[in-house]
């Protein structure tokens, strides 16, 4: 999927999460199911951590509340565009 396919959605995310950077990394994701038919899809806003699926995999538990706030804010924006409220943890 070309980056331009999600440019409008990414602009919304950037407005909610200043400093957000886009990066194409490839690999498997549930987002592939929505992106394949052409639906604008943002992925990678889930858990913060590293070592994916390896013996040294870890999760930064302190980032969970912030990521949940991002998701709630994004859902509100999708339901009511223009009534943006930044997450309290930003």
In words, what does this structure look like?
- With 90 residues, the protein is mainly alpha-helical.
- 34% of the residues lie in helices and 4% in strands.
- The chain is built from 3 helices and 2 strands, in the order ααββα.
- β1 (49-50) and β2 form a beta hairpin.
- The radius of gyration is 14 Å and the shape is globular.
Q: Helices and strands, in N-to-C order?
A: HHEEH
Low-confidence segments, given as residue ranges, are none
Number of helices: 3
| Physical arrangement of strands within the biggest beta sheet | 1-2
Number of E-type strands: 2
Tell me the span between the first and last alpha carbons. Answer: 30 Å
Mean pLDDT: 77
The helical percent reads 25-40%
Helix and strand composition category: mainly alpha
Radius of gyration, in Å, reads 14 Å
What percent of residues are in strands? under 5%
Descriptive keywords:
90 residues, mainly alpha, two-stranded antiparallel sheet
Record the SSE blueprint.
Elements: H1 7-16, H2 31-35, E1 49-50, E2 58-59, H3 64-79
Antiparallel strand pairs: 1-2
Give a short summary of the structure.
By secondary structure, the protein is mostly helical. The protein contains 3 helices and 2 strands; from the N terminus they run ααββα. A two-stranded antiparallel sheet has the order 1-2.
């Amino acid at each position: 999927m070309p980056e331009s396919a999600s440019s409008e959605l990414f602009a919304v995310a950037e407005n909610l999460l200043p400093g957000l950077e886009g990066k194409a990394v490839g690999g498997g994701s549930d987002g592939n199911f929505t992106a394949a038919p052409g639906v604008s899809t943002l992925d990678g806003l889930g858990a913060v951590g590293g070592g994916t699926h390896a013996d040294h995999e870890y999760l930064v538990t302190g980032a969970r509340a912030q990521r949940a706030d991002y998701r709630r804010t994004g859902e509100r924006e999708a339901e009511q565009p223009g009534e943006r409220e930044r997450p309290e943890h930003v």
